[in-house]
Amino acid sequence: MSTLSEKTIASLTDALKAILAKFGQLPAPVGDVVRKLTPRTRVLLTGAAIAILLKLYLAKPGKKTKYVKDLGDVGKLVEGGQPLTVAGQGLGLPEYDVIIVGGGTSGCVLAARLTENPNIRVLLLEAGGSGRAIPESRTPAAYSQLFFVKKHVHAFWTELQASANGAKKFWPRAKMLGGCSSINAQMAQYGAPGDFDEWATIIKDDSFAWRNFSYFFRKFESYQPHRDFPNVDLSARGRTGPVQVGFNNSVSIWCNKFIKACLNAGIPPTNDFNGPTGTLGAARHLPVTYVDKNRERSSSEGAYLTADVLARPNLVVAINATVTRILFKRDVESTVATGVEFSNSEDGPRFQASAKKEVIISAGAVQSPHILLLSGIGPAEHLLEHSIPVIHTLPGVGKNLVDHPIVDMNFLQKGYVQSFRYLKPKNLVETFWALSAVARYKIGAGGPLAMNYGEAAAFVRTDDPSLFPASEYPEKLVDSTSAKDSPDLEYFSTPSAYKEHTAFIFEGHTYAIHVYLVRPTSHGTIRLHSTNPFAHPKVDPNYLGTREDLVKLVRGIRLGLKIAHQEPLNSILDHSSSDAQFDHQLHLKTDAELEDVVRERVETVYHPTSTCRMAPLEEGGVVDAKLNVYGIKGLKVCDASVFPSTVSGHTAGACFAIAEKLADQIKAEF
User: Fold this and answer.
1) Nearest CA to 407 among 485, 497, 474?
2) Is 172 helix (H, G, I), strand (E, B) or coil?
3) Into how many domains does the chain fold?
4) Would you say 619 and 395 are in contact if contact means Cβ atoms under 8 Å apart?
5) CA gap 25, 152 in Å, rounded
6) Which H or E run includes 283?
7) A cellular component term (GO) from this record (predicted)?
8) How far apart are CA 586 and CA 536, in angstroms?
9) In this structure, what CATH number is given to the domain that contains residue 621?
10) β pairing state of 95-101 and 351-361
């Protein structure tokens, strides 16, 4: 067994004391215990064992919630396992004013806001469980641990991507209350003002123009000022909303080094990506995160489904309830959505419930069109291929899928600067460092577990002549931005390098810069794989389907490598390394070779939108400006699937805002 230095033993002893104290068993002397650990014990304290210890230590005492698990308490069992041919109040179904399908980022907002009116009775159905109950969701740095847990995540895979070397890409989407606000990187950047002006133009409704729609961003925000960032314009920030945003997360020493390198590469500074001056520039924290004053994730569930909200007699939240189809009443004049059918498993009993006023689908950019298609709403030819009776022909359902494609650039540190690879420990020393980080986080001192990893960012335009001079970049590209001051590329840095959505962590002390296209021109589809509601649909984002997307990402890599070679990064990254798994020599490649790099590495950054697009019917729209599904009464969609076009950044903020807007609209109608 290898010998540990006294200094190492002291460090490990302190960490071990903190952990063992949690469980009330403290062997003495602890230092002797550390010295005498056998190789087998060392192995047991790494890998799966550390994950279990972290979960135990970060877990909170169980609290009773109002979440309903017995679906028979909220719906009527379908007799004999056969679906009823007609649904409506006359069948004695449990009745609600509004049924919300999906307790994701938008769904939790709707449930909380609508039930502020005691006369509106709401049923919220969520396919998963509580996100707040999962330590890896609450803890800012731990979210990626959930990407591969099928209990909590829909582990989608794309169709073969023809323009990305024919590969399938992993596409995790949350299956829990809070939706992807419970597993995202907590980056509180909302897009560019021009994005929402573009929405208003597309749907021909000025209420979505930034000067009007920005009200709903301020409504959900509870901005937490920080003395180190006095230049944030408070007049542009909400202060009394339920969602805490601010500078409550921890950052590494790499954060400000990245920003300085961006400035030295010619990217201008900005104080606030969400401020009145627009999105372009470089700043810390994007500049703020969805991390609350307790250094925990501020998810849609945590912010909106509070104990007081759940105590309302007019709100029922049922978990582990997958909606299998929408129920309709049809006559010669109209088709009306009257309720939903749902179950907790593929072979489990089916239940039905009735909605007097509205069924609102809020299941996300993949599952919202999936549910519509399963229910007979969509392209008639596609529905008939699967022998689904056509309730209403609506060609736009499942079309116009847009996702932000990302490419990573990975580097070795020169020696050791700062590294957090020990948060996924592979040996005893890393295990004790990880346990020490847990203890620090548990006592409220922040530390590595309070990081969101994507801690600094920059937004640029690929036609900015100061960054991409025509002499070096002569090809004219389509301008896909929403306005002249809106970006089409985003950069962010992470204090460790990884692949495969963090399933693979590079050996050694590493660093990474990531670039993604925030306004791609490639569009894809969501289509049925089968009529089984529990089977995954076909997801085809059509990555790099246009040349513009490929060339813009090549430009993005060029500028990213330039940033990596600017001070202070230049001096602390090992640019002498020729190790092929790192990118220190990538700048020497030709554009054609970089195109191959893009095709090989392109992945999702978890921002799919626009599959139930809010747009005029004749332009492929699925919902109108009030989010009503065309041709169906009593049916709305509210989530990222309705975005008329994708936002120039992160999607969660617009999901909060559009749900706030719809809730105000419905309450006014009541």
Assistant:
1) 497
2) strand
3) 1
4) no
5) 33
6) strand 281-284
7) extracellular region
8) 37
9) 3.50.50.60
10) parallel
Q: For residue 13, tell me if it sits in a domain.
A: no
**Nearest one of 311, 346, 319 to 74, comparing CA atoms:** 319
User: Catalytic residue among 152, 404, 575, 607, which?
Assistant: 607
Active-site residue 650, yes or no?
Answer: yes
* Domain carrying residue 374: 64-83+91-245+299-403+606-669
Classify 514 as helix, strand or coil.
Answer: strand
Please tell me the distance from the alpha carbon of residue 311 to that of residue 400, in angstroms, as a whole number: 40
In a domain, 155, yes or no: yes
Question: What is the pLDDT, as a whole number, of residue 43?
Answer: 45
HSE of 36, CA atoms in CB hemisphere, 13 A:
7
CA-CA-CA-CA torsion for 227, 289, 559, 266, nearest 10 degrees? -20
351 lies in some domain: yes
C-alpha 388/C-alpha 382 separation (Å) is 9
Q: What percent of the chain is predicted at pLDDT more than 90?
A: 77
Q: Exposed (0-12), middle (13-18) or buried (19+): which is 304, by Cβ within 10 Å?
A: buried
Does the annotation count 523 as an active-site position? no
Query: 94-145: per-residue pLDDT in tens?
Result: 999 999 999 999 999 999 999 999 999 999 999 999 999 999 999 999 999 9
Q: Give the torsion sign (CA, 655, 658, 664, 670).
A: negative
Residue 44: predicted pLDDT: 46
| Residue whose entry in the numeric block shows the structure tokens 């939706």 | 179
What is the 3 state secondary structure string of 2-47?
CCCCHHHHHHHHHHHHHHHHHHCCCCCCHHHHHHCCCHHHHHHCCC
Q: Residues annotated in the binding site for FAD, as ranges?
A: 105-106, 323
Which residues, 6 or more positions from 48, have their beta carbon under 8 angstroms from its beta carbon? Answer: none
Q: Let me know if residue 464 belongs to a domain.
A: no
Give residue 455's pLDDT band: very low, low, confident or very high (50, 70, 90). confident
> CA–CA separation, 606 vs 567, rounded Å?
31
Of the candidates 300, 297, 371, 337, which has an alpha carbon nearest to the alpha carbon of residue 113?
A: 300
642-666 confidence digits (pLDDT tens): 999 999 999 999 999 999 999 999 9
Closest to 592 (Cα-Cα) out of 545, 559, 557, 542: 557
CA–CA–CA angle 370, 372, 374 (5° rounding): 70
Q: For residues 68 and 317, is the Cβ–Cβ distance under 8 A?
A: yes
Q: What pLDDT does residue 57 have?
A: 56
Continuous segment of H or E residues that includes residue 635: strand 635-637
Distance CA 160, CA 246 (A): 40
Where is pLDDT greater, at 634 or 226? 634
